[in-house]
């Protein structure tokens, strides 16, 4: 068997086209969606992520504002900027790129963002709303995974889903979204005793470990849907050393899985797409007079 490839690039292009249409409709009514991005410090990877997000906004007709702060920025200055953006009706989404330098209390910064503009979905109130099944901004990566499953016609209700990873930005919200969609969900992590025993039972396996090629073919149930969130580099000594790879050994896994996301070109592009979607949704809510 060769797995069906769940193409995140193609789905992103389709959804971003739809979002551009919605953004243009809002702009025509004087309510162009706007996203403010705050970058603090000199983390090279963060600078690339921010550049990609700003470029994606511009392509979709979303106004983007970028604010750069040095590595030694005072937290009070960033908090003051967030307060200003919270009050600005032309700004519908505020994103603070993580990680922040050590003098910052990340939690305090995320909590300072207005819940209504928290398009990353990291504010405790949005997390609480998600866990209660109320409308909320969902974190972009797991939200993107749900779209991949939906557009890939993968049945979620009644499935056995296994999520490997329990971070606040991927694993935990992923488990909540799958639970709400009717899956029976197991969450695995570094203390899980027999990881393979769990992964082999999964109809839907979502892997967000940050460990290159950790999931081999023998850990996958034949015919399962495998979603690889990981973004790593092939290790030294590997024929593809230095190139981007996931947490799943894609070449081996695709012979066993029923459907699988590649890395790159799977979950990655969907993360930015869902950021755009949340920003357009926030602008739509604001134009309609609130949440
Ligand atoms: P974290 O490092 O915060 O979390 C990793 C999780 O994996 C932890 O819960 C950890 O368990 C678990 N884990 C680590 N090793 C093992 C193991 N050997 N067995 C079982 N569980 C293990 O990472 P993130 O959630 O932030 O990201 C995960 C991956 O996804 C990374 O590669 C990251 O780059 C990528 N990513 C990709 C995005 C995209 O857009 N495609 C967006 C965000 C992340 P424990 O909690 O016990 O430590």
User: What is the CA-CA span between the terminal residues?
Assistant: 47 Å
What ions, cofactors and ligands are bound? NADPH dihydro-nicotinamide-adenine-dinucleotide phosphate
CATH architecture of the largest domain: 3-Layer(aba) Sandwich
Q: What is the gyration radius calculated from CA atoms?
A: 19 Å
Helical/strand content category: alpha/beta
The general outline is globular
Residue-averaged pLDDT, rounded? 97
Enumerate the spans where pLDDT stays under 50 for 5 or more consecutive residues.
Answer: none
> Share of helix among residues?
25-40%
CATH superfamily of the largest domain: NAD(P)-binding Rossmann-like Domain
Tell me the CATH topology of the largest domain: Rossmann fold
Sheet-strand content, in percent, reads 15-25%
Count of helices?
Answer: 10
CATH class of the largest domain: Alpha Beta
Total E-strand runs? 11
- What is the element string, with H for helices and E for strands? EHEHEHEHHHEHEHEEEEHEH
**Major sheet strand order:** 1-11-8-7-5-6
| Main beta sheet strand tally, sense and closure | 6 strands, parallel
How many structural domains? Answer: 2
């Amino acid at each position: 068997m060769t797995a069906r490839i769940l193409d995140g690039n193609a789905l992103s292009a389709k959804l971003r086209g739809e979002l551009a249409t919605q953004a243009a409709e809002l702009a025509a009514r004087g309510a162009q969606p706007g996203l403010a991005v705050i970058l603090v410090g000199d983390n090279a990877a963060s600078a690339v992520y921010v550049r990609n997000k700003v470029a994606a906004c511009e392509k979709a007709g979303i106004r983007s504002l970028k604010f750069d702060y040095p590595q030694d920025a005072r937290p009070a200055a960033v908090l003051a900027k967030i307060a200003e953006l919270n009050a600005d009706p032309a700004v519908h989404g505020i994103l603070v790129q993580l990680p922040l330098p050590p003098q910052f209390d990340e939690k305090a910064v995320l909590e300072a963002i207005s819940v209504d503009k928290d398009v990353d979905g990291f504010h405790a109130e949005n997390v609480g709303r998600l866990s209660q099944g109320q409308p909320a901004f969902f974190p972009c990566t797991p939200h993107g995974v749900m779209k991949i499953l939906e557009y890939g016609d993968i049945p979620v209700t009644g499935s056995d889903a296994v999520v490997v990873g329990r971070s606040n930005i991927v694993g935990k919200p992923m488990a909540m979204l799958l639970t709400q969609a009717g899956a029976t969900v197991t969450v695995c992590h570094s203390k899980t005793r027999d990881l393979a025993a769990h992964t082999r039972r999964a109809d839907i396996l979502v892997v967000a470990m940050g460990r290159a090629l950790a999931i081999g073919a023998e850990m996958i149930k034949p015919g399962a849907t495998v979603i690889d969130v990981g973004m790593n580099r092939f290790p030294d000594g590997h024929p593809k050393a230095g190139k981007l790879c996931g947490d799943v050994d894609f070449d081996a896994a695709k012979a066993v899985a029923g459907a699988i996301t590649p890395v790159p070109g799977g979950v990655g592009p969907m993360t930015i797409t869902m950021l755009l979607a949340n920003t357009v949704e926030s602008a739509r809510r604001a134009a309609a007079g609130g949440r």
